[in-house]
Amino acid sequence: MQQLNATQIKKSFINTSRREAEKITPPANLAEVGWAKLEYFGWADTKIPQRAYIIVPVDDVPRGLMLRVVPIAKSQAMCSWCEDLHETIGVRMFTAKKAGSSGRNGNTLGTLIHGNFECSEIVRNPPRAVEGHNDFETHVSMRISKLNERATNFVKRVLGEK
Ligand SMILES: [Zn+2]
């Protein structure tokens, strides 16, 4: 994804009020983020517990989601964004308020995502023996496009477009 600055990030939120978005603190080290190898950018709020944010580029437009971390009983789960079969520890349940009036009426959507938002790194891991006969590059680019698709679909569901 393209590099974002703090202003672009604050402007990208689709499921917050303008005032809420204004109060969001993006991470300080934005210039050091490896944007080119990210399908989405996520971080946990350092001040507000159980609050996290994800920015997904959808048709090259950054779309920001404010998320709430929901404690789950299971210690392992499959991440619904990268669907990695092995990296099942540290997956958290997040809920996003829906965009617009639907969200104001209390509607939310839940999803399971790697709690440290490392899906982009995970999909670039070398394939394991059980994961088919594709060469490394095909395997990774397939996983990247799937991650892209799942992240985009979640944003579209939050927007009520899916
Ligand atoms: Zn993941």
Structure description:
This protein has helices at 6-11, 18-23, 100-104, 119-122, 136-158; strands at residues 41-44, 51-58, 61-70, 91-97, 108-114. It is α+β, with helices and mostly antiparallel strands and 162 residues long. The chain has one domain. A five-stranded antiparallel sheet has the order 1-2-3-4-5. A hairpin with a 2-residue loop joins strand 2 and strand 3 (61-70). The longest helix has 23 residues, at 136-158. The structure holds zinc ion. The site of zinc ion has 8 residues, from strand 5 and helix 4.
Number of DSSP strand runs: 5
Ligands bound here?
zinc ion
Number of domains: 1
What structural category do the secondary elements indicate? alpha+beta
SSE order, one letter for each helix or strand = HHEEEEHEHH
Order of strands, widest sheet: 1-2-3-4-5
How is the biggest beta sheet arranged?
Answer: 5 strands, antiparallel
Give the N-to-C terminal Cα separation: 23 Å
Described by the principal axes of the CA atoms, the overall outline is globular
Strand content: 15-25%
Low-confidence stretches: none
What number is the mean pLDDT? Answer: 94
